[in-house]
Structures are given as structure tokens and as C-alpha cells.
Amino acid sequence: MGKGLIETNTPLPEARQGEVVESQSNEGFRRLYIESYGCQMNFSDSEVVASILSSEGYSTTRDIEEADLVLLNTCSIRDKAEQTVRNRLKHFNNLKTANPSMTIGILGCMAERLKDKLLDEEKLVDLVVGPDAYRDLPNLLKEIDGGRKAVNVILSKEETYGDLQPVRLGGNGVTAFISITRGCDNMCSFCVVPFTRGRERSRNPDTIIQEALDLDKAGYKEITLLGQNVDSYLWYGGGAKKDFEKASESAKATSVDFAQLLDKVATAVPGMRIRFSTSNPQDMADVVLHAIARHSNICNYIHLPVQSGSSKVLKEMNRGHNREEYIDLINRIRTIIPDCAISMDMISGFPNETDEDHQETLSLMELVKYHYGFMFYYSERPNTYAARNFEDNVPLATKKARLDDIISLQRKHSFFWNEAELGQIREVLIEGSSKKSDDHWYGRTPQNTVVVFPKTDEKPGDFVHVLIESCTTATLLGKRI
Ligand code: SAH
Ligand code: F3S
User: Fold this and answer.
1) What is the pairing mode between strands 175-179 and 273-277?
2) pLDDT in tens, 358-408
3) Residue 104's Cα: distance from chain center in Å?
4) Among candidates 316, 313, 389, which has minimal Cα distance to 348?
5) How far apart are CA 217 and CA 219, in angstroms?
6) d(CA 79, CA 89)
7) C-alpha of residue 286 to centroid of ligand 2, in Å
8) Most buried of the four, 118, 429, 433, 441, by CB within 10 Å?
């Protein structure tokens, strides 16, 4: 599994650390090596960056040693994510000694959070670029050619990179991300994202559909619509979500929300599977659930972070919903989409979390029985509301012990769901060879569970039916029928 958000055994696509497809390189062209950390949005952004730089004559390489430009697309979500990048930078000393003209740049959330401080702290770094400033990369690189260091961390209310055609990096040719919103307005008290990725804005649906059609034509079989808060998607001609009220009546009348977008995409590419991530409980409307139920190509799987089972903690997290409202939403999902898999994000050890609060988290998990989970212990992030107003007062050992409880309970539930699959026949989209055995395929069910089965005459991108015969906590094993 990649570093960053995915810290448990989960069936999400493998993170693709530093993988880049080698494209045709012409004499005199420069070579770009890009490594991505953290959330899926960063992987998607790296594809936008590769697109911007390909117009400048950069071809991508998998070999860092031959690169002229090395970019790290970074994550700030927890302290550990930042430390990972800092440790990685230490390895670049030798690279730069061997090739003094190599440019090293930091993109993404660390760039935005630390700004030009990064240049002081990490002497090897030449370039610091925040998530909304990638179009400025060609200019910034010219400054560096002129012998200077360069920084652009300006956030935007409009930028969605909607008109750009991402260069697909290191993927499997079967599944791809399409970014639909940028930024987040939710201001969860623990979260650095609203500061590093700015205000929420949505991308023109026409460009989203065009990207889906292009992927379909190129043979891709699954797309994941990406945003920090996809349910909050709202296109009204451009601009920040929070400015919607100020829009003209005609812009409002022709606006497109997330349920409508799902309808449009599902109809445009009926042969593709459609997924989306991430949903936030307070923004998930029933019309979205009905759209999922209505379209057989929208996967019955919802990633619905909750963070805690205690209403008291949820309030201090500024989550915009309490335990009862969340349970109510789970019940509506189960009624409207009966075989929907649900996964969560959970945080242990938020400030002032008591053992009773922790027990409420465990009891919520028992009640919902999630298929999967992404579980973390609280990491205080500078300048967030929580950092400014609450003491980080749960001892690390307690945070970790509670996290262990959460992870073991989740393992039990994942196994419960996997055992229930035994004897079932599932549609599996083949993504590639199993990591553990070249004689087996690796794919996923619509519910996002990983299935491994022996190869016969199939190929990646095929939809096949597999009889599930055995399982582990994270994987179903079977044979094609
Ligand atoms: N809406 C976003 C959430 C990004 S952060 C999305 O698209 O996924 C992903 C997860 O990291 C959060 O749901 C939360 O569980 C966890 N997280 C965020 N800030 C954290 C912090 N300060 N400490 C520990 N975990 C955190
Ligand atoms: Fe962070 Fe909450 Fe937005 S977790 S990304 S502020 S929904």
C-alpha cells in the first residue's frame, strides 16, 4: 500500500508511488519524474501537472536519476505524512550531487501549508507550488533557469483545471480518476485541507463528461469522480460554492448538482463503472442515493467518513451531523440501495475524547458494520480550529490503544462481509495480475471488494463472473464461471 491516507488493508486501488509512464522522448526534451503522496486527488493532480508540463516539452520518466525535474506532490493531513516527504527529501542529496542541474520541486498541501518556509527548511528544494498554481509551473521553471528559486502558493476560487487533458500516469489502463470539485468549505476542526486546498468549487460538467468519453474511447472501464466533498458538487457557471447565492437567476436555474451529474455521467458512458469519493454525511442527499439505485453502472459502494461515534466529539469536530443523523442516513442508504457497501474514516484520540466516547465509536461500528475502514489516530495540525482551541490531551499510548480496538473490530466486520460472499457469484472487473501470483488476476466487485482468481483466457479490463470460494479479511478468492 502507498504511504499517506491508506494505512490499513483496504481494497482501494493501489497507490502508485512515484510511478510514471515513460512517454516518447524527443532529443532536447526534458525529463520529469513525479511522485505522489496522500489522497487520490493528489494522484489526479499529478496527471494534470504532467499535462501542463508536457506542453512545455517535458516527457515523463520512471527513472529518477535521469530526471531534469523531480516533483513531490505532498500531503499534510497528518504529521506522519509530512515526515514521510521530509525523509524522502534526504535521499535526494546524492541525486543532486550527481546531477547539480536537477530541479527539485514540492507541490501540493505541504507546499501550500509551509510556503517559502520550505525553501529555508529544505535547502535542496528549488520550487514550491500550491494546488491551485500548477498552470504557473512553466513560468516558475523559467525563473529557476535564471538561477532563482520560485514559489507560487496563491489559492483560487475558480481554478478546476477543467479544460486540461490529464496525462494518465502509471495506471492500469482500466481505472481512472476524474476530479470534479476542488477545495473544501466544511472546516472540520481537525482538518488542514480547507487551508491547503482553499474554497470549494466545481468543474464544468461538460468537461467532466468529455473526460469520461475520452477514457471510454481509450478502453478504460471504470472512473472515480473525485472531490473532498463530492455531494456538495454544484456547477452554476464557475466560481466558489459559497458565492452561489450571489449568482444570477439564470445561472441558478441551469445549475447542476451531484445527483444530476451522476445521471449525466452514467448515461454518457453506460459501459463503464462509476465510483465517487468522498461523501460527507451532512451533504449526502437522498436524490444522490436514488441516482445510484437507478443506474446499474454506478457502483453500490459509498465511502462515508464519520470520524467518531460520539455526538459530543462530532460537535467539537464541527462535523455538521450527530450520531443519530448519521445512523438515520445509513438506514436510508440501506433502504434505497439494499446491497450497498459502506466504508468509513475514523479518528481515535481527538482532544477530550473519553473512554465512553471511544465506546460509542465502537458501538456505532457494531451498528453499521462497515465493509472497510480507513482509521487514524488524531494528529494535531497547526492553525486548525482544534489546534487553536483544544489541548491535544489524549496520551499517544491511549490514542494508539483505541485505534487498535477500532482496527480489530473493523477486521472482524470486513471478514463478516467477506464470509457472507462465499458461494455467491460476483461481477469482477479485472484490473491486472495479482501482486502475489502471476497466475492470478486481481479485480474488484461493484462493492469494491478485491477478488483474486486463477487466470484463463481473460485480459485486464474484462468484466467476468467469479464464484467466491474462500476469503481472508481483505480479499475474496474464487474461480471464473
Ligand atoms: N473529505 C476528504 C477528507 C480528507 S482527509 C476526502 O476526500 O477524503 C481524509 C481523512 O483523514 C479524514 O476523513 C480523517 O479521517 C483523516 N484526518 C484528517 N485530518 C486528520 C488529523 N488531523 N488527524 C488524524 N486524521 C485526520
Ligand atoms: Fe477535511 Fe472535513 Fe473537508 S475532513 S477535507 S474539512 S470534509
Assistant:
1) unpaired
2) 999 999 999 999 999 999 999 999 999 999 999 999 999 999 999 999 999
3) 24
4) 313
5) 5
6) 16
7) 21
8) 441
Q: What is the pLDDT of residues 180-238, one digit of tens each?
A: 999 999 999 999 999 999 999 999 999 999 999 999 999 999 999 999 999 999 999 99
Q: Does residue 256 surpass a pLDDT of 90?
A: yes
Cα–Cα distance between 364 and 432 in angstroms, integer? 36
Alpha-carbon distance of 205 to 233, in angstroms, equals 10
Q: Which atom of ligand 2 is nearest to the CA of 345?
A: 4
Nearest-ligand number for the alpha carbon of 77: 1
Q: Looking at ligand 1, which atom is closest to the CA of residue 229? A: 1
Start-to-end C-alpha separation, the chain: 30
What pLDDT score was predicted for residue 28?
59
For residues 15 and 171, what is the distance between their CA atoms, to the nearest angstrom? 10
Provide residues with CB under 6 Å of ligand 1: 5, 39, 77-78, 190-191, 193, 228-229, 278, 305, 307, 345, 347, 376, 378-379, 381
Contacts of 359 (CB under 8 A, 6+ apart): none
* 265, 208 contact by CB (below 8 A): yes
Give helix 258-268 / helix 205-217 axis angle, nearest 10°. 30
Q: What domains lie within the chain, and their CATH numbers? A: 19-152 (3.40.50.12160), 175-414 (3.80.30.20), 425-480 (2.40.50.140)
Question: What cell does 31 get?
Answer: 525529463
Cα 50 to middle of ligand 2, angstroms: 27
Residue ranges lining ligand 2, Cβ < 6 Å: 184, 186-188, 191, 193-194, 228-229, 280
Ligand 1 centroid to Cα of residue 77, in Å, is 6
Sign of the torsion formed by the C-alpha atoms of 22, 24, 28 and 29? negative
| Nearest CA, atom 1, ligand 2 | 191
Measured on CA atoms in the order 353, 356, 359, 360, is the torsion positive or negative?
negative
Q: Which ligand is nearest the CA of 317, by number? A: 2
Using the mean position of ligand 1's atoms as its centre, give its distance from the Cα of residue 258 in Å: 22
The phi, psi pair for 117, rounded to 5°, reads -55, -30
Rounded CA separation 139/151 (Å):
11
